[in-house]
Design brief:
By secondary structure, the protein is mostly helical. Helix content is 57%, strand content 6%. It has a domain of 121 residues. Strands 1-2 form a two-stranded antiparallel sheet. It has a two-stranded antiparallel sheet with strand order 3-4. Zinc ion binds next to loops.
């Protein structure tokens, strides 16, 4: 069983922060670490319903996503988040403080605070990198994401978290669980981050199946052909260039990578890192080495 298996629930103990594991149906258990008695509900794997987006025509939905892409990044992060994330990637001495901020956001999100839900998703991403890269503790990474999923109320926020869980499952070699996490997601979200998460995850699954035509259907043929939330732009670019390379057009794949590396700050470093972070997909095996000689 992988650390991201949908056959079980893995959550963070609300009292001590240790990961707890129980059946998907939930139940009553004591925490294995602090012994606090816990009552856990069944996981909700029902399809996510995005309020109102089903009323939009497809051109209206895409137009709304482009408008969100144009204003992306205008929001200011709150001081308590900046304080724990100052100094870059989390280190062991700062992870406790980060978990405290995350817990506060989750509590507010579960009470219906939309803005806190967005911040909870952001904090989850930052702490996730610590558990995966520094602590190398996939069970705690999984527990963090599933606890966030339980706390969130907004379907678009839930979709971003479910898409992350689906991609972690794939990386762990657990395609059936990836399909369960992803299966509840909405292919027609009106929210830019939820739509981008859907496209990246759909394209990753299609890449794993060697279905490069559908990668390009989801991501468009070239940079700028679909609206993308800025933090995912290079990830989208690498998945797209890989599909272009695997479809037999190495020159176009190289040209796209060079253009994206030059267009975005940090792109030259990030593009090879994105490919290395997904060894199961073997992204851009020829185009990245050749693009590096040009950018
Ligand atoms: Zn505990």
């Amino acid at each position: 069983m992988s650390a991201f298996s949908t056959d079980v629930r893995i959550l963070t103990c609300p009292h001590c922060g240790a990961p707890i594991q129980l059946a998907r149906q939930g139940g009553q258990i004591p925490c294995g670490y602090c012994r606090a008695p816990l009552t856990i509900a069944a996981r909700d794997d029902a399809p996510l319903q995005q309020g109102g987006s089903s009323l939009l025509s497809e051109p209206e939905r895409i137009q709304g996503l482009w408008a969100q892409a144009a204003s992306f990044g205008d929001k200011q992060l709150p001081p308590e988040m900046l304080a724990v994330l100052a100094g870059g990637a989390l280190t062991t001495d700062r992870v406790g403080g980060a978990l405290g901020v995350w817990r506060t956001y989750c509590q507010r999100a579960s009470a219906g605070d939309f803005a806190a839900g967005e911040l909870a998703v952001l904090m989850t991403g930052s702490i996730s990198s610590y558990f995966a890269v520094v602590a190398k503790d996939l069970q705690r990474q999984r527990a963090l994401f599933e606890s966030t999923l339980d706390a969130l109320r907004d379907p678009s926020h839930k979709q971003v978290v479910r898409c992350s869980l689906a991609r972690f499952s794939m990386r762990a070699g657990d395609l059936p669980s990836a399909q369960v996490w992803f299966g509840a997601c909405d292919p027609r979200s009106a929210d830019l981050q939820a739509d981008t998460a859907y496209r990246v995850t759909y394209a990753s699954l299609a890449t794993a199946h060697g279905d490069f035509r559908n990668v390009l259907a989801a991501l468009g043929p070239a940079p700028g052909s679909i609206p993308v939330a800025l933090p995912s732009r290079l990830h989208v670019g690498v998945l797209r260039a890989n599909a272009v390379e695997r479809s037999g057009d190495l020159a176009t794949a190289i040209a796209q990578l060079v253009a994206e590396a030059q267009a975005l700050p940090g792109g030259r470093q990030a593009i090879p890192e994105i490919a290395e972070a997904s060894p199961h997909l073997q992204l851009c095996p020829q185009s990245i080495p050749l693009a590096r000689m040009q950018w």
